[in-house]
Amino acid sequence: MNSPLRLFLLFSVLGSSWMSAAPAPKIGAADVPKPSPSKRHDAKVTAVKSGNYDLVLIGDSITHTMGELGGKYEPLKEVWKKHFAPRNAINLGYNGYRTEQILWNLQNGELDFVRSPKVALILIGTNNSDDRHFKTVHTAEEIFAGTKAIVDLVKERHPTTKILVLRIFPRGGDGEKGVSPPAFNSSKQCIETCRRAGELTKQLADGKQVFWLDVNQVFLRPDGTINIDLMWDLLHPSPSGAEAWAQAVAPTLAILMGDKPPAPERVVLWADQAPIGDGKFEAAQPVLTVYRPTNANGAAAVICPGGGYGGLVTGAEGRGIAKWLNTHGITGIVLEYRLPRGRQFVPLLDAQRAIRIVRSKAETWGCDPKRIGIIGFSAGGHLASTAATHFDAGKAAAADPIERVSCRPDFAVLVYPVITMSEKGHGGSKQNLLGPSPSAESVALFSNEKQVTAQTSPTYLAHALDDRVVSADNSRMFHEALKAKKVATHYLELPSGNHGLNGYKGPMWDAWQSGSLKWLASLKLIPAQE
């Protein structure tokens, strides 16, 4: 049966397969395990196989120094005891290691846990780019491939373990001086490769099992140079730096490990004097209160309580909304904006600043900078609609990095909002915002139905027909203006509920909440609702 023709065809196929096969990967590639036996590895394998750990830290010397080295690193043991030991953690960091060596360690016993850890925190890759301490270096793309290989291995071995990938920490350059010798001054190429590789690793996050966090701002001054008080040798965190980055990852770890939601965080909007417009400032400290969900989906919303611009209803229209958003995976940020007292730009300046802050802190707070919206009620709805129509892309030349960030909301949700400053609006809100005798220009500027453009934020509106405080015409006018500009919008006109929708409860209240969630899901700003 083995005719010459059949044998010829068989050998042709085999030959073709052999000729087209890719070359075998070589040891030294960032994603190919490199044998790295050591006493530390043997001890860690023994610990892994004999213990039950909830948190595993995987990395190089930056991780290794966190609680497991003496000498000048002795004080970092207190950071470990404070932040990681209580979480039943094990340190799998190795001084001088690169992705390929960590891969070998993990393949050879360091993932043989008795039960899967809750979380694996991975910080690796800086040594792969170090052209001053290693003969060979890798490109950013190769470092990404090495990091991905580590993540894929953990996913394969422990499908229930959540993985938190930290962006590669920054490095100091030749023009900088450390305070703890020897200083690790890095070449421009090394610094750029680290920056780029760290940026690429964000692609590993799927929001389900793998998450990504950038805490690099912890170590940087406003001008982008290393803060040597926190990174004392231009590479490794000092004791205070270790404390700072442990605190920076703590809220995300708490969420991934299934702790109770982190305590609300209060953030002052303006570091010094708060602007009031026309180049003038005042001593004031409006604040944001950040409520983070246990299972974040990446969306966030700045919440503007109502109160007629004469007060703030921070309970039902503030904290209550934040906690409701949290139950749906959305980060809720309550804005306690300054009351205008006729200073018409003050609330808007606070709202714009709030959106910039949330966007600039998106990674730290587990948010997607492209899914940050604003929610407002009554006069807070006017403020939210003002933010949705009056915004900028950021001021590139600003000294303050926060001011370089866009203040445009990615969506707006307006509930029984004041929209116009005309006779159909709300007299009290108008007087509190614009003063007793506003100019025609001010009335037009803050009549937001007149300010809609094609770039206005997609908007969901809800209003009761029997609202005797703020006419439903406000929502109708804004909705029609949005449609005219082809901006995504939905208007839920409720049959009853008056202003406040029956005291923030009941079927009318429930209707706008469920409706807004479905609308946000239709725009893919949040996951589809059940």
What share of the residues lie within helices?
Answer: 25-40%
Mean pLDDT: 92
**How would a textbook summarize the main sheet?**
8 strands, mixed
Parts with pLDDT < 50 across at least 5 consecutive residues? 1-21
By helix and strand content, what is the structural category? alpha/beta
Number of H/I helices: 16
From the alpha-carbon coordinates, what is the Rg to the nearest angstrom? 28 Å
- Compute the number of strand runs: 15
Described by the principal axes of the CA atoms, the overall outline is: elongated
Fraction in beta strands: 5-15%
Record the SSE blueprint.
Blueprint: H1 4-20, H2 39-50, E1 55-59, H3 61-68, H4 76-84, E2 89-93, H5 99-110, E3 119-123, H6 140-157, E4 162-166, H7 188-200, E5 210-213, H8 239-256, E6 265-268, E7 274-277, E8 280-282, E9 287-291, E10 300-304, H9 315-327, E11 331-336, H10 346-360, E12 372-377, H11 379-389, E13 412-415, H12 427-434, H13 440-445, E14 459-464, H14 473-484, E15 489-494, H15 501-504, H16 507-522
Parallel strand pairs: 1-2, 1-3, 3-4, 4-5, 10-11, 10-12, 12-13, 13-14, 14-15
Antiparallel strand pairs: 6-9, 7-8, 9-11
Helix pairs in contact: 2-5, 3-4, 4-8, 5-6, 6-7, 10-11
Question: What does this protein structure show overall?
Answer:
The protein is an alpha/beta fold. It is built from 16 helices and 15 strands. Strand 14 (459-464), helix 14 (473-484) and strand 15 (489-494) form a beta-alpha-beta unit.
